[in-house]
Amino acid sequence: MSDIFNAEQRRFLKLLGLAVPGESPVLPLAKNQAASAPARAETKAEIPKSIASSLKAPEGIRALRAAAGVLSAPPKAAGVAQPVAPEPQPEIPAEPEASSLPDLPAPGESAEPQRLQQISASDWRDLQIMVHNCRACSLGETRQHAVFGAGNPRGSWLFVGEAPGAEEDRRGEAFVGRGGQLLDNMLKAMGLTRQQDVYIANVLKCRPPNNRDPLGPEVQSCLPFLQRQIALLQPRIIVALGRFAAQSLLQVTTPIGQLRGQTHQYQNIPLIVTYHPAYLLRSPLEKRKAWEDLQLAVQVFAAASTASS
Ligand code: URA
């Protein structure tokens, strides 16, 4: 693969921390990064902002992006439902007034069918309120903030992660910790920004204590929120970050290694699977594969945009 890179591309890959064959990785694991770190434990940022902000995409990728129309936020395809415009991304709203809470079920009646019905009928703002009020599982008791998402809901790209980490729980915004910094650099390498092109959401809206893996019932309770977000956002492409996002959206148990490298469909929306940024922080040599996934996503996006224009 290296022989197809020119000098600028090689420099770019190195700045992103991607391994270039024949050269040792530029940004090795930080000394304190134990191989046995917990699943989503976040580690020292690998790419200083000063370096990241000077990144320039290689010519080939710029051309690809130009073809894909990703340098500026593309308008949604004609006839595609637009999400209800939310206010600029939360500032976590104060817990809503009791009057904005959904109706309660009758005594003895299960709340779940009614909750699911309310989710599937909600607009963007109501959905935000429901997420911020949610007590459907015990994570509602331990969270500091529910995390609805981040980025531009009018963007054409949707990136889906697993669950908020400690920093996201504290600030109420998706991917603002170390993994988020790497995700922003991955987006930058694709010519995207979360301010303009991308919305970012998670399968779980609340942080599992000690960053443990999400439990099945938690995913089951929370997934309808993500499904409704996708229905309202109508992204042109979805990138699933990591095993939980991929398996939850595709409703499969296939290992991530087998899900990568192909275009899946989520309700007729192309879906590409790549590694989670937290995993890439622990396993920097895998960044090269992630970069291949992201290039595939850019190509699929370009093809989808061409087909719909
Ligand atoms: N990891 C995730 O999957 N999502 C976040 O928002 C932060 C870390």
Written description of the protein model:
The structure is a single chain. The chain is α/β, with parallel strands linked by helices and 309 residues long. It has 2 domains: 2-68, no CATH class; 112-308, Uracil-DNA glycosylase-like domain (Uracil-DNA Glycosylase, subunit E, 3-Layer(aba) Sandwich), CATH 3.40.470. The chain has 13 helices and 6 strands. It has a 6-stranded mixed β-sheet with strand order 1-3-2-4-6-5, sandwiched between helices. Strand 5 (264-266) and strand 6 (269-274) form a beta hairpin. It is globular, with a radius of gyration of 19 Å. The protein starts with 6 loop residues before the first helix and ends with a helix. Mean pLDDT is 78; it is low at 24-99. The site of uracil has 14 residues, from loops.
Summary, kept brief:
This protein has 309 residues and is α/β, with parallel strands linked by helices. It folds into two domains: 2-68, no CATH class; 112-308, 3-Layer(aba) Sandwich (Uracil-DNA Glycosylase, subunit E). Helices cover 40% and strands 8% of the residues.
Which structural class is indicated by helix and strand composition?
alpha/beta
Q: What is the CATH class designation of the largest domain?
A: Alpha Beta
**What is the terminal separation in angstroms?**
32 Å
Biggest sheet, open or closed, and with what strands and sense? 6 strands, mixed
Number of beta strands: 6
Q: What's the tally of helices? A: 13
Bound molecules: uracil
- The CATH architecture assignment of the largest domain turns out to be 3-Layer(aba) Sandwich
| Unreliable parts | 24-99
Give the CATH topology of the largest domain. Answer: Uracil-DNA Glycosylase, subunit E
Strand order of the largest sheet: 1-3-2-4-6-5
Fraction of residues in H or I helices? 25-40%
- How many structural units, i.e. domains? 2
- How big a fraction of the residues is strand? 5-15%
From the alpha-carbon coordinates, what is the Rg to the nearest angstrom? 19 Å
Mean pLDDT: 78
Shape: globular
